[in-house]
Amino acid sequence: xxxxxxxxxxxxxxxxxxxxxxxxxxxxxxxxxxxxxxxxxxxxxxxxxxxxxxxxxxxxxxxxxxxxxxxxxxxxxxxxxxxxxxxxxxxxxxxxxxxxxxxxxxxxxxxxxxxxxxxxxxxxxxxxxxxxxxxxxxxxxxxxxxxxxxxxxxxxxxxxxxxxxxxxxxxxxxxxxxxxxxxxxxxxxxxxxxxxxxxxxxxxxxxxxxxxxxxxxxxxxxxxxxxxxxxxxxxxxxxxxxxxxxxxxxxxxxxxxxxxxxxxxxxxxxxxxxxxxxxxxxxxxxxxxxxxxxxxxxxxxxxxxxxxxxxxxxxxxxxxxxxxxxxxxxxxxxxxxxxxxxxxxxxxxxxxxxxxxxxxxxxxxxxx
Amino acid sequence: xxxxxxxxxxxxxxxxxxxxxxxxxxxxxxxxxxxxxxxxxxxxxxxxxxxxxxxxxxxxxxxxxxxxxxxxxxxxxxxxxxxxxxxxxxxxxxxxxxxxxxxxxxxxxxxxxxxxxxxxxxxxxxxxxxxxxxxxxxxxxxxxxxxxxxxxxxxxxxxxxxxxxxxxxxxxxxxxxxxxxxxxxxxxxxxxxxxxxxxxxxxxxxxxxxxxxxxxxxxxxxxxxxxxxxxxxxxxxxxxxxxxxxxxxxxxxxxxxxxxxxxxxxxxxxxxxxxxxxxxxxxxxxxxxxxxxxxxxxxxxxxxxxxxxxxxxxxxxxxxxxxxxxxxxxxxxxxxxxxxxxxxxxxxxxxxxxxxxxxxxxxxxxxx
DNA sequence: GTTAGCACTCTCAGTGGGAGAGTGCTAACT
DNA sequence: AGTTAGCACTCTCCCACTGAGAGTGCTAAC
Lengths: 368, 368
Hints:
The structure is a homodimer. Chain A is α+β, with helices and mostly antiparallel strands. The first copy, chain A, contains 15 helices and twelve strands. Chain A has a five-stranded antiparallel sheet with strand order 8-3-12-10-9, with helices on both faces. In chain A, a hairpin with a 2-residue loop joins strand 5 (about 145-155) and strand 6 (about 160-165). In chain A, helix 8 packs antiparallel against helix 9. At the A-B interface, strand 7, helix 9, helix 10 and helix 12 of A face strand 7, helix 9, helix 10 and helix 12 of B. Chain A binds a DNA duplex through helix 2 and helix 3.
């Protein structure tokens, strides 16, 4: 019932004791996943006050919107607002332990020096260590521009198109032809297009296709241009495909134990690699503008299914940006129940994103 | 209770009517996932007999081990034996519809011409069309042999190792050194090892490392050899990593609705890409020996979790084998509840495995 | 060999009650 | 004014119970 909630006044200042109790309640709930009772918190943390007093404070915290309880005779649960306050003001700054940092670094040096490998590795290791869903995306070029085009006839009606792009990638694409073509003719076409299209992106190619081709649709040239444009778009997309791991740990979290439908929805999103539903586009856009780490709590999230989850997101990318080849930053994303361990998750997201950035700079930065 | 089951006599011949009833029961159960009652089958299929008669036959089928029922007053369910008989003798031969075949072919031609892409695509499309778990593995070389070795110093203590192998792949590996090394020294080492190790596999490299190096452990050469061996093994593994898709559809199957623990186990296997637990090693070995399509039903499966599932497996590989470079075949695997649609699954596994083989031969066969 | 009839068994959904857990409130205490 | 004990009240959770419904197995007649 969000309408009952008092408006959030970010300047509002909690008395020290009340803030302390809020912190204890949140920490305890993060740890135990059960509503925390006044008596429980007094005994566990040996507070110098009686349950009744704590109850009083909890009541006040509830009126201010930091806590709720699921039903009359249950303990308190943090509200989204409570979590937000915890993250912003209460929890302090944490780092991963040195031993863990060293062990993770070691694993990265064991891996093959390719961004895709690192991304995969980061997702797996992080998911295992947190027991949450982890999504790691590589930084990738915003658009690809043609450097060279080759057309190799496999037989009369089947051509292998090879596109070398300026962003240091090579794309191969199998392409059926609308009509048989001579080998020479094909080579000429490739040479011509290679010259015409150097430095052009998918959009340019589309425009060229519409303008230059007189005979519409089915000429060989039209088919080649259309395929080329498609391929450029697709490969720019593909370069940014994120790794997702940790579904097992996530589904083992108590909040999913008794909610088969919600579980199933989430499984389907992951099964379909639907990163666009898991990570809000607005945040990615913000990263591209130079934004920093994000923490989205509860109903901040646009995907309904994830409105009872939180998302910790840390961007990274090559630290030596090339203005001629704009890049969409990569990110380390951690999705968990709103009850997730924020200090640890935030520290981990920060550490892994920095590590990925270091790795990229160390290995790819050298070649520049 | 497998001990109560009569021994399987494969020569046993079912009377026609009884076999027909078995077929109807199995088809109906595959369709509805609810135990099928005598009355139900009579009405639905307009049988020229009364429920009591059918009941009589069902009773006989149960005594022969083809059917069971979950409790006294429930309808009949096929036993594993029943499914096996259905697959072997009752169900006949099915093919995918022409429209579906064409649509799938089209999607494959749209994709980039790389085995990894096809494998990924096959898993996704097939999973979506069946609503089951699909695992597709590419064929891959049994072992990799060194063709050439390069060592590129990134800084004094960090080297990028590049291995070109005879199986037409390139491997890159970042490698920290135990002690600073001059650039020239490194080049000499690379040249020497390149000569010594040409044509050698991971095992050979390991042996070379043990014999040749006098100073144990920490010489640069020892580190390089050890890393090289690791890298060869790892990359041979990685080349065969299968694509897995369809977890969502699988978890939506009714048999998983009320079994959260079993669901969770399966989710974890998939989350960890544990193909070795999903596909029995014995079957893969058999493929390597030239085996054909397999159907494993129920407790045929070595992984306990999957003993209430069935597995349809179709191998494929380049049809032009090269004896100098032995290859582990790829496969199309379909995992579902024992209640899965066998005719369709088997037809699909056959079609996709043949298609993958065609694709590989068409694009890679040309270069030979 | 087939069928109708009927008793029997088992599941499933819904109900009710008792135990337990925690709160909210009030009145007394410091 | 803040803190505390005491107590009534509420809600969940678990368990046992029940009746309806579904299907079978058996028997006796066709």
